[in-house]
Amino acid sequence: MIDLSGKVAIVTGGSSGIGLATAQGFLKRGATAVSADLDSPDDGQIEFVKTDVTNPESLQKLVKTVVDKYHHIDILVANAGIAEKKAPVSELDEDNWQKVINIDLTGVVLTNKYVVKQMEKQDSGGSVINMSSILGLVGGPKSQAYSAAKAGVANYTKSQAVTYAARGIRFNAVAPGYVNTPLLKTLPKETTDAMIGKMPIGRLAEPEEIANVIAFLASDEASIVTGAVVSADGGYTAV
Ligand SMILES: NC(=O)c1ccc[n+]([C@@H]2O[C@H](COP(=O)([O-])OP(=O)(O)OC[C@H]3O[C@@H](n4cnc5c(N)ncnc54)[C@H](O)[C@@H]3O)[C@@H](O)[C@H]2O)c1
């Protein structure tokens, strides 16, 4: 099993779904896991710091609380996210657009900002895993803010991967297909039925399946920079 002993991890949105499975997977592998969420986890073992990922003061307080107690942060999973109101763009709900972009894209970047500042101070590397989605990689009917946010997370993460590679702070994004979590229950049944139809495995993924991939990316076993490619003109491209 992947060994994360002694590592301290923050998981945003760690009180439900993929985030909760990720935090539980970290604990099982020997790490300390802190859920940074609006709501506390229904799990006696995972620590909780009430956090709003759209609020810089809340994020600074999160980092301070964790560093005061554990003195370092080794892993960040910027996972908190919400679904969108599906509609063609001609019927876009502008408030919903802003809310989804604020949480799913800006929230990831802000969380990275304050945690990576701490990782820079520690000067001992780190692993940042940001949550994208299949909808950030391919088109989805009636999706606007969610697709834009998740595509933004994917490409933003590549830029950070090449920016921080030499300092040993690794950035990866995961882009799951459809996963059996409370987030899907916020969508109409015809939408979730269509999602199952698009899954090659013929079912929704389980949160633990995504959590296992995240645990690997968080571990020292993934500590080589596999994503940076040096192009012929000497520039770097993350893949
Ligand atoms: N479920 C899927 O099919 C699927 C597929 C691909 C990607 N994702 C992404 O995975 C991530 C987790 O989704 P999930 O399905 O586990 O959802 P979920 O609803 O079960 O969990 C999301 C968590 O994020 C928290 N959260 C929401 N807004 C927040 C904020 N402002 N600050 C802090 N926490 C906040 C919620 O309280 C909740 O605990 C999301 O980014 C989602 O977009 C989900």
Automatic annotation (TrEMBL):
Pfam families for this protein: adh_short_C2
Gene3D superfamilies from the UniProt entry: NAD(P)-binding Rossmann-like Domain (3.40.50.720)
UniProt-recorded Gene Ontology molecular function terms: oxidoreductase activity
Source taxon at top rank: Bacteria
Keyword field: Oxidoreductase
BP GO terms, sorted: bile acid metabolic process
SUPFAM superfamilies with a match to the protein in the record: NAD(P)-binding Rossmann-fold domains
Similarity comment: family membership: Belongs to the short-chain dehydrogenases/reductases (SDR) family.
PANTHER family assigned to the protein according to its UniProt record, in alphabetical order: DEHYDROGENASES, SHORT CHAIN, ESTRADIOL 17-BETA-DEHYDROGENASE 8-RELATED
Protein name: SDR family oxidoreductase
Organism: Secundilactobacillus folii
Lineage: Bacteria, Bacillati, Bacillota, Bacilli, Lactobacillales
